[in-house]
């Protein structure tokens, strides 16, 4: 354990400065348990890829990025330290001929943090990253190490746990044999084709992302389709294949992005949009994301499009994806396939916060936020059928509210 306090710093995009008293990096699960027993207030800190006070605490921030453990593969299951980043885990799995079913846009995020917030990739038949979890180990508010396995009574409530139940030290993930992906970018998508063919486009190949700024570009298009295929590139109505690599934000250098132009390669080098050894996304930015029942997708598109004049000056780019339904209580895809509407904003917190209430009011009923990003609603529980069950779970796992913070007070209540 460090003998001197370490500066707590900020979120990766510098959108929020942590106010915690101290940052501690334990080396073992025993160290984590000792911390929980000693400190009245603490909170797990992942890879800092959030934009709010979600991970903050008036006490001690706990980073697991120095746990002295490596992944362990046993058959199809890999046991992973919670602080490990996906980019490091996926390379380790690839060396052993194994793979995960899907990945997020960024390989820079930690496994425990991504799972706890319901982070996802894309694909109409692909669940969020949390759906690969078969077991997790948590140091709860009493300092006890609790193991939960799929099928146990509390498992579905604890996987997407937003840090409220304790510190997740390890997770076990289901793997498959490794596979190849080819990535192509399709340009010239019009809003009419996006709206009419949305379901077909999202289901055209294994993983699909649509990038747009919601208003017409000079060529009459609204965006590009990034297709990640197991075999051949799809036909996307009204589009043409890009002849050179692209960045997800029009006009930026594509060097940070994963390989395109249809060249097949290992799954972990194509499913993310960004390479591990580059700064992801834009850098100085804010992000929001809303997950809408897929059956109301066209209504959601029209709602966002109606605010295009207000959105465009604030926006770097927006991404549209699909995520398959799951049974995890606080997952934004709980019980229904969803359309994910992601917004990468300029670093303009006042402008974004003024827009979000109007945007959320226009989105269809049943829309849920991504927990790690900016949203305006302070009462999301109405759209999560197991909300009260989750609050009961928190009371059992953390009776003294050691892991509670201002964000949970505001959002969970």
Give the biggest beta sheet.
9 strands, antiparallel
Helix-and-strand structural type: alpha+beta
Q: Report the order of strands and helices.
A: EHEEEEHEHEEHEEEHEEEEEHHEEHEHH
CATH topology of the largest domain: Alpha-Beta Plaits
Describe the structure.
The protein is an alpha+beta fold and 413 residues long. The protein folds into 2 domains: 72-178, Uridine Diphospho-n-acetylenolpyruvylglucosamine Reductase, domain 3, CATH 3.30.465; 180-375, Alpha-Beta Plaits, CATH 3.30.70.2520. It has helices at residues 29-38, 86-95, 111-116, 155-158, 191-202, 297-305, 308-311, 349-362, 387-397, 406-411; strands at residues 22-24, 42-45, 60-63, 72-74, 77-81, 98-99, 133-139, 145-149, 167-174, 176-177, 180-189, 207-212, 223-229, 240-241, 265-266, 286-293, 315-323, 338-345, 368-369. Strands 11, 12, 13, 14, 15, 16, 17, 18 and 19 form a 9-stranded antiparallel sheet that branches. A 5-stranded antiparallel sheet has the order 4-5-9-7-8. The chain has a 3-stranded parallel sheet with strand order 1-3-2, covered by helices on one side. Strand 4 and strand 5 form a beta hairpin. The two termini are 33 Å apart. It comes from Nocardioides panzhihuensis. It is an enzyme of class 1 (oxidoreductase).
